[in-house]
Specification:
Order of helices and strands: EEHHHHEEEHHHHEHEH
Shape: globular
Strand order of the largest sheet: 1-2-7-6-5-4-3
Strand content: 15-25%
Structural class: alpha/beta
Largest sheet: 7 strands, mixed
Helix content: 40-55%
Radius of gyration: 20 Å
Amino acid sequence: MNIVYQLLENSSRNYQGVLLDEHRTNVCFKGPVRKSLQDYEEQQAILEDLREVVESLSTTGFDTTLALTDILSIETAEVDEKRTWRIGEAIAEVVLAEKFDARFYWNELRDARNPKGNKTGADLVGFVEIDKQVFFLFGEVKTSSQDIRPNPPNVMTGKGEMMDQMRGIYTDEYKRDILIRYLASKTRNLSDSDSFKIDYKNATVQYYRKKKKGFSVVGVLVRDVDPLESDINSCYHKLKADILDHTGLQLIACYIPINKDDWYSIINN
């Protein structure tokens, strides 16, 4: 991943354009992006449970066909192409984790009661380390092929789109508190030495130390067009007038050198 443009006002308030080359994109799509879209960790746990069921049934003489069929179905499952909004989020998580010291411990697919449903509140909920301090990260993700340069794409500036959503995270304390409680519920039964729980406790201290403004708001724009700074620079300058200095602010444009229509075929190999 290469930084192709940037503005660094300080370590917590900045914007960057990140370009992935074709090889890195393929590796990313077939590896961490696919694993995120399928919740690989949970998938493997379910497979282990089913294998134990098969072993138990076989030793007692019962039919194992249904359990074996489910195992095969899970092992050969492809990523659902109808969930186009999730692939951008998965790319964003990978870029933030690998390039910007972000950490995401919980795959929100585990909470989905409706497999086609979308969560509310924020696209990204995790942590970011800035100057050796851990903060809550609340982020929004948009994917766009629209090429209307030098203007930002509509997903950035339209009513209810990314800029409005980022302002909403900053101004809506109730929304943030709900997201923090969501994280708290996932750490409740973890040991005190677990990294997830440690990050949660440290981020909570920073949040209240700055009177509930100690967190980072992040926007990630995923594009399959050539990099251009005008995609995000004017948006950043408008946002920083509304999201004040004690809160982190970061805009990232992530450029993918492969047409969006081909992403799923790469992920599903």
